[in-house]
Amino acid sequence: MTPLLPAVELDTGPAPRHALLWLHGLGADGHDFAPIVPELARGLPPMRCIFPHAPYRAVTLNGGMRVRAWYDIRGIDLGHRVDNEGLQQSVAQARAWLESLHEVHGIPPSRQLLAGFSQGGAVALAAALALDQPLAGVVALSTYLPQTAIPSTVAPMRQIFMAHGSFDPIVPQSLGEAACAQLRSQGHSVEWHSYPMPHAVLPQEIADLRAWLVHRVGS
Fold it and tell me: Which of 17, 47, 49, 140 has the fewest CB atoms inside 10 Å of its own CB, making it the most exposed?
């Protein structure tokens, strides 16, 4: 059994019946996106929000420096030169939290949301595509689709929100657009947004995400 990663845990209201698991980007930690919860959750049903801390590992692209990372990044060809062993470890760790939300807190996959930013978004997509049962929704921000994460068989349709900055120097928007096109070609429902920003998150992006969440979990 995969142990649960330590995480920041927040409830947006009493007795939450929905859950959000959010994976941070390279070099950050679970505290990175926790501050957006009040704005993101405004008008939504109570949710249990989990922000895990990725393990420390050496990252080749960072000169071997050890930082919090979901997997090693071996080169600038992000979608293809993927540390698949590390990616699959992180997918298993994300799944362990999703299973805990069901088994311990009684929140089934149909009321779970899986989100991620940058490298965390790549893990979120990989984990969501590997699940037998679709989640309530998947959020992938400023990210890409690792080619090793694409299932050999077509998975049931996923509801996915993707957003990217047109001035992103870290993960070029073209990688996000390619991921969106590939996911749509496989029958997944992808809502795509582009914003005039670098590798970041804007208030308008959070507002658009909240509007999408209303359709996924209600208001």
Answer: 17
Q: One of 105, 194, 199, 208 is an active-site residue; which one?
A: 199
Residue with tokens 């670098």: 198
- CA 182 from chain centre, in angstroms, equals 17
Would you identify the CATH topology of the domain 7-217? Rossmann fold (3.40.50)
DSSP class of 83 = -
Q: Can you tell me the distance from the alpha carbon of 182 to that of 55, in angstroms, rounded to the nearest whole number?
A: 29
pLDDT above 60 (res 129): yes
Instruction: Choose the catalytic residue: 72, 118, 142, 188.
Output: 118
Distance between CA atoms of 35 and 16, rounded to whole angstroms? 19
Contact of 10 with 37, CB cutoff 8 Å: yes
pLDDT of residue 140: 98
Which of the four pLDDT bands, split at 50, 70 and 90, describes residue 37? very high
Nearest CA to 76 out of 162, 159, 171, 153 is that of 171
Asked if 132 is an active-site residue, the reply is no
Residue with tokens 């950050």: 28
